[in-house]
Amino acid sequence: MKTFTSLTLSILFLFGSISAQVKTRSTINFNKDWKFRLDTMNAQDENFNDEHWRTLNLPHDWSIEGAFSEKNPATPSGGALPGGIGWYRKAFTIAEADKDKNIFIDFDGVYHNSEVWINGHYLGMRPYGYSSFRYNLTPYVRFGNQKNVIAVKVDNSKQPNSRWYSGSGIYRNVWLVTTDKIFIDHWGTFVTTSEVNTQQATVNLKIKINNTSDKQQNISVHTFIFNKEGVEMMRKLSGDISLKDSITEIAQDFRITNPTLWSVDTPYLYKAVTKVVSNKKIIDEYVTTFGIRYFKFDTDKGFSLNGKQLKINGVCNHHDLGCLGSAINTRALQRQLEILKDMGCNAIRTSHNPPAPELLELCDKMGFLVMDEAFDVWRKQKIDFDYHLDFNAWHKRDLEDMVLRDRNHPCVIIWSIGNEVLEQTDSTGDTIAKELAAIIRNLDTTRPIAEGNNDPWPNNFVLASNAVDLIGYNYDHLHYATFHERFPGDKKFLGSETVSAIATRGHYDMPSDSIRMWDTPSKLNVDFTCSAYDNCCAQWGSTHEQTLKVIKKYDFLSGQFIWTGFDYLGEPMPYPWPARSSYFGIMDLCGFPKDAFWLYQSEWTTKNVLHIFPHWNWKEGETIDVWAYYNNADQVELFLNDKSLGKRKKRGDDLHVMWKVDFKPGTLKVVSRKDRKVVMTDEIKTAGKPAKIILSADRNKINADGTDLSYITVKVTDAAGNLVLDADNLIQFTVTG
Q1: Cβ atoms 311, 303 nearer than 8 A
Q2: Of the listed 361, 451, 497, 545, which one is catalytic?
Q3: pTM > 0.85
């Protein structure tokens, strides 16, 4: 969580004799005006000539700027884009007034194998591309008008190193942090709630104070709790504290009456503002955002939040943002979450790595539960240059940093130590799982630990270790109902990865009631498409409906994380090159919903839903399967050119209704009714030839800060304005400014 310089005058006045004129810490966005070049040279020296290098702003992903090619060593599974070695350099100055301060640089993520120098001094390296990390610049920086140069080498040349598209470069935000010699340490607060109900909550705050001065110091610590509206609720003042060692931890407890509990529907957030005072001066201020909530995984009742049973209706997501590559953008993340929220989704699995901090901040604000995942690989490799090369040396640091960074987020309810690791079938899985779980529990005991298992059986060494609290099932939906027979006792179920249905938005294969698994080449389409009827899936997975039916049936099934919310770059299974992005998403790479979106919306929300498909441009006389997803209605009726084709209603565990219709051009309309009253109508028209291009923006006003986005939807219509759903025109864009 980022903290920014801010002094609340109303607080300062209450301190009485404490000076309000002292500058506390500052956290400056350090993204602008970096020099960049793809090259294998050595460019760490401060006097290196980078005059002719490209100037850019971070976050930056150089791979997405390259050309797609099956010859790129990342392979199509890794997105078929280039890697290489890149250098970043930035010159900057630090005010003379900060000469007695600490200066740090924080990287939210660099992919990968990064090394950093300041003024020619080597600061260190970080292999794992998903970890956030800090370097202390203080011993090496100059002040006033003297120039400082930071150099970053990023080596993503050894590929393949990821089973999906990773991107390359400083692809997350960078921050320059200035503090007093005495300050609240990096990720230095920890909020827990030892007692929570609707009447009161006990909030426990642990604070780590770092003394980097060379002498003993006396301080006091003042913490103020604010509600969402910014109103102070209470405060706590420590007595005098003598700082002898570099790190001193103190604890402060608060009792909040009638708390507003954080939930997926009411994501209410509080703030703890902690001020360090020395010699009657505020020398540091640190803001910790937190939520008050309690949850439970139960053997028989599944998951509950704040005492109310709740299905985890989640999705897995990789970190790329389509055409933006892996370069993080808050608005792009927000748009994804808005689409998922509209669908009824309430949870995210950060597959298969620690996410950008901005994702967790948005999930806190928007009301999403999060399964926060550390690794895809332990010691045993899946591909040539993956994390197995760094696991022994770095897993403890990487896992600790993830937990320390993320443990104050109320959205995080599960720590995941891995995904489909090969040690499931190896006795080392027992030892490693216990070690990873112990690392987490040393830092946080408030959340259960899980692992995504594609071999969810009692003889799985990871599960047999009893290191994990939740039994994570990756697929295997036919055995969900017999979970308690497979895992008797107090074991708890989690659908850690489910479904793996594949679909091309707007493409439909007949007949729709024939499920096609791509376990044989003869079942693949020559045009590289997959049916959007929910009748096409991976051989290890299921259709959306197959898994949804069983998840909703049993209380002890806490929920699921569907593979995936959005299509992503890489893993274009089942197709070879030139396919280079996945088919698994409920939304496509641009964020447009496939038809399964309305299936989940009809099941996961209470809003009225009615959706028919496919499009209505076919050959005369073809028999077309017409599906409808609906809710909040007794039945639905289909009309073709105002002639009724019959009424349908869902029976048993049906999740859709269907008509077989001989195609005739015109208007296909469906009407849903409850108690004989119309609830909704939906219609599709046969479109003529493409004649118009219509552009519409999702936001008409955006911040002029160089990072905000407006997404433009381009629609091709016929002369009458009907959407041409099977249009395949090549549209060219010219962008200026």
Answers
A1: yes
A2: 497
A3: yes
